[in-house]
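Batch job 17 of 40 flagged for manual review because the log was empty.
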Amino acid sequence: MTVEELMNKSVVSVPPEETASLAARLLQRHNIGALPVCGEDGRLKGIVTDRDIVTRCIAVEDEPGETQVKDIMSRSVMTARPNEDIREAVSRMAEKQIRRLPVVQEGKLVGMLSLGDIAKAGRCTMEAARALTEISSNIRRKN
């Protein structure tokens, strides 16, 4: 099974020049925890999470309506490829304890793979199921 078979192809993204305030509204409106940050050419530039907005903007008393996403986003983002075996992607997610992977092809965002996508599929191999369990238990311990 490949990443493409499980990824969500309808991805909400945000340009790096947008404000943290808009990013927060998009996260809330779409009930998601992260937004890929893409340039006009569709290339992935980074990712911004609800936690980034809180810790890198609000907690340091910056104004969310004036702070640009590029100033608070994470630039080094682990990604997956559409044709990648799902077990490889899930293994990396478990190893790095991350909940979602942007899926890129030739540098451009084509989807997102999340723990929820994997869990909902119900077709995971034993290896992927073990990795999913590891991620979930580590997330609970961190929170």
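Reviewer: the log was empty due to a logging misconfiguration, but the result itself is present. The first strand starts at residue 34 and ends at 38. Unflagging and moving on to job 18.
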